[in-house]
Specification:
heterodimer, A: 80 residues, 4 helices, 69% helix, flat, B: elongated
């Protein structure tokens, strides 16, 4: 019961805050719509920087394989 | 819009906290976290300059810095695990095998 009341209070506070601050965001200008969006970054990354992007994939794979190799539990040596 | 100087000041403060953490802390994991904090403060500076100048290349550079930071964190944590298995400690004052 107490948790339900607390949840209702928190939800009302959230709704009040979002409702009171919804008009304060800056209007989207033309420059903001073209610079810094996912579309602009993706256009640049997958055309000009395509080769470095693929190299980062290889780098991350090598890093994960190396980390697992370093951190894995040592296999007990079988006496031969 | 928040002015550019605030972002730069926040980046400088975060970088200073990272440098102090690397130089003063004894725990190896905390030192790794401080190094990541320095990398991310530089990322914040790059992104703020990129947004201020209207150039996308800074954010792409931030992407590559994040990739290298992720690889560095993975390998660093693996090395810390290995050191802990050998020494039963991650205190860098007790790990002086390579000290000259």
């Amino acid at each position: 019961m107490v948790s339900f009341l607390l949840g209702a209070v928190v939800l009302s506070q959230l709704l009040y805050t979002v409702g009171s601050l919804s008009g304060t965001l800056p209007a989207v200008s033309g420059e903001m719509a073209t610079v810094g969006t996912v579309e602009a970054i993706g256009n640049e990354m997958f055309t000009t920087y395509l080769l470095p992007f693929e190299v980062t994939a290889i780098l991350l794979t090598a890093a994960v394989v190396g980390a697992v190799l370093i951190a894995q539990r040592k296999i007990k040596q079988q006496d031969s | 819009m928040i002015a550019l100087n605030w972002y730069l000041a926040l980046g400088a403060v975060l970088f200073t906290i990272g440098v102090l953490g690397v130089l003063t802390r004894k725990n190896a994991i905390v030192i790794l976290m401080s190094a990541e904090l320095m990398l991310n403060s530089v990322n914040l500076t790059l992104v703020s300059f990129s947004a201020h100048l209207g150039d996308v290349h800074g954010q792409i550079l931030v992407f590559f810095v994040l990739c290298v930071a992720a690889a560095e964190a993975a390998v660093g944590l693996a090395i810390i695990i290995s050191i802990f298995r050998n020494n039963l400690s991650v205190d860098i004052t007790k790990i002086n095998l390579l000290r000259w």
